[in-house]
Each structure stands twice: as C-alpha cells, then as structure tokens.
Amino acid sequence: MNFNYQLVDKILNAILPLPENFGIDELYDEPNDLLLFKNKLHEVDKEAIIFFGLTKMVISSPQLNGVVIKIPFNGRYGSDDDEKPYWIPFKWADASDCSDYCLAEWEKYNKLKKYRLNCFVAKTFYYKQIMGVRIFIQEQVIPLDEFYKTPIIPSKNSQKLAKQWWRESKISIDPDWMANCLDLYGQAKVKKFLHYCEDIDPDILEDAHSGNIGYRTNGTPVILDYSNYLDF
Q1: Where are the beta strands (DSSP E) in 54-207?
Q2: β-bridge mates for residue 136, sequence order
Q3: How far is Cα of residue 13 from the mean position of the Cα atoms in its chain?
Q4: Count of CB atoms situated within 10 Å of the CB of 28
Q5: Exposed, middle or buried by CB within 10 Å (0-12, 13-18, 19+), for 111?
Q6: Residue 89 above 70 pLDDT?
Q7: 228: in domain
Q8: Quick one: 15 and 129 in the same domain?
Q9: How many CB atoms lie within 10 A of CB 223?
Q10: Which one of 84, 119, 139 terminates a domain?
Q11: Is the alpha carbon torsion for 2, 3, 8, 10 positive or negative?
Q12: pLDDT band at 151 (very low <50, low <70, confident <90, very high)
C-alpha cells in the first residue's frame, strides 16, 4: 500500500503521547483535550480531519494519499446519575490484546486473507508502536451514510437476491450494498463470506450499519469498521 509515510510520521510525532485515558463516553461526546489534539494535528496538516467512534479514532487527509490513520482507544468513560464520569478499560475486543479494537480489525483482516475473503473488508495493516500506542493504516473508504444513493446501481437480479437474503437473514445490512457485492464478486463468493461470518467470525457483520460499510474510491463495496464492540 503506497502512501505518504513522511506525513504519517510527522502527524504521529506531533500528537503523541496521547493524554491519559484518551477516549469518549457512550453518548459519543468528544474526547478530553480534543481541541489541543486538533491544534497539534493542524500544525502539521491543516487539511487533516478527525473522526472517532466508541473504540477508535481515525485521522484522514487528502495528503495521506488514499489511506487513513487508525488509533485505538483503550477504554471509554461511563457515569452514574450521582457520580462524575469514570474510566472503563476495554476488555472484550476479539483480539490477542482484548483492549485494542484496531488490533482486532487487523487480525481479522489477516485471517480473512487466508480464506481469500479479504476483498470484503478494508485493507488494514499494523504500522508501528509508538509510546505504547499501536498505530494502524487502512485504505480510505467513504462510508455509505455519506452517499445519497448507492454510487453504482446494482443489477436487478442482484437487487432481488439481496433483498431476499435481507428478509431471510438475521444480518441487518443495506441490500443495495450487498447487491453491489453480488455483482462484483459473484453469488458463490458472497455466500462463502456470509457463511464465514456466520460460522467463524460473526463479529464482522454484527455492527454493519451505514457508517461502518461503504465504498472504496474506485466504487467497490467494502466494510471499513469490522471489529464490532462488546460491552459486558
């Protein structure tokens, strides 16, 4: 994967180390010290944008040349009615380190490669560890919820089959997106992927909402966030 290594390193050197307990709460409020974090980032790259979910942060920029930087949170904040927010470390990620949901994605990607099913998920690789933080690089993907309609109109046969599967399956995933997968990869390969997710790794499709699936810059359908989130 070709990208701007020099800019990635400049960004990481500017923003690290992260503040202690750098994460958000279950209401998706901004992380503590986010403004300071943004200021450090924009000193290096004024076009950079920060996105974050409950388990990880993503840095995107046109200057990164087709990739994003993914940095894991290792916990989140919770609160009771009469108490101040308290830190809850992650311990349920499906990874060799159960506190790291970015690591879970990378390990899932490599496992899918062995089955030749990695085409369905965004290409992800481990970049390096800096100051105790694992850094991951992922190909840039535009989430489905940023489109008004599917970028590539699927064939009628694939639309019909995808809607049938949607009605019959427990998986809640956009039928047009699935129809695009059918047109691109074929029915046999899509079925193989769905069976893999059902029998081997259900986490991949457990959280496949419109913010976690999307399209590569070449228009092909892909899952961009497939680590799921478990909170027991």
Answers
A1: 56-60, 67-72, 75-78, 86-89, 124-130, 133-139, 141-143
A2: 70, 126
A3: 23
A4: 10
A5: middle
A6: yes
A7: no
A8: yes
A9: 23
A10: 139
A11: positive
A12: confident
Cα–Cα distance, 139 to 217 (Å, whole number)? 9
Among 51, 35, 12, smallest CA distance to 132 is for 12
Give the position of tokens 């076009």. 47
Q: Select from 72, 69, 139 the least CA-distant residue to 104.
A: 72
Q: 193: domain range?
A: 144-223
163 lies in the same domain as 125: no
Torsion from C-alpha of 104, 133, 14, 30, nearest 10 degrees: 60
pLDDT for the residue 7: 94
45-80 burial: b if 16+ Cβ within 10 Å, else e: beebebebbbbbbbbbbeebeebbbbbbbbbbbeee
- pTM for the model stands at 0.91
Tokens of 14: 């500017």
Q: Which of 96, 117, 139 is the last residue of a domain?
A: 139
